[in-house]
Here is the input.
Amino acid sequence: MRENYRWAESLLAQGDPLGALQVLAPLLSTDATFSVRLLAARAYYHSAQLGRAETLLTELIESDPTDHYTRFLLGRTLERAGRRPESVRHFRLAAALSASPDYVEALARVC
Here is the structure.
């Protein structure tokens, strides 16, 4: 499991989100841990499968509403889908949960 996760992570870092999703497919059906699902959501986002990314990120937020990066990525997904007003809430929460300059910059961009 760990080996496939790292391989998928590497593929995503190399700009191959579809390859990452192929590697993650068996993990998602058998061992869908938070980190596996988050990596899949990132791959969905980077392959412009925004509906799938949104669905997975929403599920992840339900399981851990205080995860700032998940909030940020959901905000980015909504923003990219042309739903800026909906993204504001998630960027605000991400910025409140973590002092990342990326979160503050994203919030300023959509407000």
Remarks:
- Residues 52-110 form a domain with the Serine Threonine Protein Phosphatase 5, Tetratricopeptide repeat fold (CATH 1.25.40.10).
- The two ends are 41 Å apart (CA to CA).
- The chain has a mean pLDDT of 96.
